[in-house]
Design brief:
single chain; mainly alpha; two-stranded antiparallel ribbon; 33% helix; globular
């Protein structure tokens, strides 16, 4: 994000574990729909891009100014799923999933995982705020708040 790159498709299948150097570390892969703020062309500016279970509201709106906070939203969805076993907006149709990302607050993850600390649940909910400016500014801030 500091270099102006927005992944736009953070989801479990795009995160791999690398243990070649000892302890495992997560590595983000598949930058096929990534957006670089300094790009000279804007081919994907008007298309809805991303995986619908993890997509940020502003990506659904095809906002021209999608930034790193869209990735924070998707990381929040992925963290919710990791800690509860379900995505926060499981619906019967694609349209209903997209509408939920736009308008529905996620259920408190402690309803599904009661032992989850309140601070962790609040961090996930903040990462999934509908308005980008209400989310964490960086992934580092989000990770620190999870502790």
């Amino acid at each position: 994000h500091q270099a102006g790159l927005v992944h736009r498709d953070i989801k479990p299948s795009n995160v791999m574990l690398d243990s070649t150097r000892g302890a495992s570390r997560a590595v983000l892969t598949d930058f096929g729909i990534a957006k670089f703020s300094q790009a000279l062309t804007n081919i994907t500016a008007s298309a809805v891009l991303g995986t619908f279970d993890y997509i940020a509201p502003e990506q659904i709106e095809a906002a021209a100014n999608v930034n790193g906070r869209a990735d924070i939203y998707s990381l929040g969805v992925m963290t919710y799923q990791l800690l509860t076993g379900v995505v926060p907006f499981s619906r019967l149709s694609t349209g209903a999933v997209l509408l939920a990302h736009m308008t529905a607050p996620p259920a408190d993850p402690r309803e599904l995982t009661p032992a989850l600390p309140r601070s962790t649940a609040q961090a996930i909910q903040r990462a999934m705020a509908k308005t980008p400016n209400e989310r964490f500014a960086t992934a580092t801030e989000f990770v620190a708040a999870l502790a």
